């Protein structure tokens, strides 16, 4: 039963994250007048399809993700759609082939007359429109994260956790070294705090159980250069930090929920970007990377705790996908945006041979990284580390 729950939860999370990403590309392409040949939910063989206003809407057999095939785009999905279009056209009687090359379906479908393309090829759109289309997927991932967090905050029984200190425990080291009741925490170790979890995340990263704080006290900004915290040891001898203070709750109004949901997206974005920087700087080991197996395992664990934990993990994953796709890496949307920015500044597109070579090399690197991360996941799974 747990396997089925994990499978269903993983399909739900991956489908939601990827489908909303592709919908972003689809929606902005339509708004910009670019021809969308196909919008597919799922991958693999087609189960159902319907042509509408020049676009084929498909449901495919593998319920993981989806894709958008744009006219004039050199992508595997677009080439697949064109290949299916030619195959479908060849299977039709000659009397039905007229004008079919412009449609992925190649003619009447489900009783409809042939729909002609309604837009222009992607490569004929202005640079700024192409850049918007490429960035739209990541933006929809951020929007999904915002909506999910708003739902979670609205559904919880507890008030929203603030960044204002309610009380400091008697004798707590943090109180002796600077923190006072009523302080509003603005930053920890120089990093701005958007939500209460920002404080906890930065304190978890400290190595000597101390941190610099910037607080708002009596309307004035106060710098506390070295706030120290008490520690305690568990039965295994591991040392843990004790906060030594509590914070106020915030009334759960619609405005506060929206504000906290947006700040939570910023928080997730912060920890993802910080983790990536820690990895590049060597602060975190590459062996800590997780691949599909680790992600599915985490999804299964979250689903076993309840729908709130599953949705919170969904929010983290979708923000992660949004940030990852905006990285200036050739195989990602961010890399395509960089190519378009170069074209916009110079007036000349980066040669297709250079783009294809860089993209192929980047795909190879990403694939190798995914294999390595998957190997780590399997080792951790076998050894019981996850």
TrEMBL record:
Membrane-topology annotation of the record: Multi-pass membrane protein
GO cellular component: membrane
One Pfam family cited in the UniProt record for this chain: Peptidase_M50
Keywords, alphabetical: Hydrolase, Membrane, Metalloprotease, Protease, Transmembrane, Transmembrane helix, Zinc
Cofactors: Zn(2+)
Residue spans crossing the bilayer: 131-155, 310-331, 354-375
Composition-biased stretches (Basic and acidic residues): 83-94
Gene Ontology BP terms: proteolysis
Annotated family: Belongs to the peptidase M50B family.
Name assigned to this protein: RIP metalloprotease RseP
Organism whose genome encodes this protein: Faecalibacterium prausnitzii
